[in-house]
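note to self: dont lose this again. the chain is below, predicted strucutre after it. 196 aa total, dont forget to put it in the shared folder this time
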Amino acid sequence: MARSAAEPLRRAEIVQATIQEIGRTGTLEVTVAQIARRAGVSSALAHHYFGSKEAIFVAAMRHVLALYGAEVRGALAAAEGPRARAEALIRVSFSQSNFRREVIAAWLNFYVLAQTMPEAWRLLDIYRRRLDSNLRHALRPILGDRAAAVAASLGALIDGVYLREALKRTAPDRRGAAALVLGHFEAELARGDGGR
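---
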């Protein structure tokens, strides 16, 4: 395989290995050697492609966010009406591709990394603002002035469910997690205009 054709493949393998290693250990304390071993490349090659362990983590975060974003766009395109759009946003957060052990561990650790690394903070801030904006847009026709507050509570609840799942030792409960957030959404809808 030509060098130029091999690089994107190797980068993708290193990113996948990073997510798997973070999921396996539950921490960012994985080494480039561990990541490289899982990816089937040398540590030197991993450093060559990314420059640092932190850059590898940011690339993994970008990958997770890109997959999530693509799934959100697909779900929103298929949703008919504001309520369906809001439900689609909630369901995507707990889809099989987004709500699995290694991705949950990656999200938790990316939040930790964002406390000290500006690029990680920026990526998580983009995610947070897009989720909030999408929820507000879907909720405004249904809830009017309450849309912003309900969007904020739904976003916080989604993040909180991820945190709780990251701390559990059992397999992620996608249906239960989605049902919890959808239940909150239904309760807010039931409040109707009286909550304005």
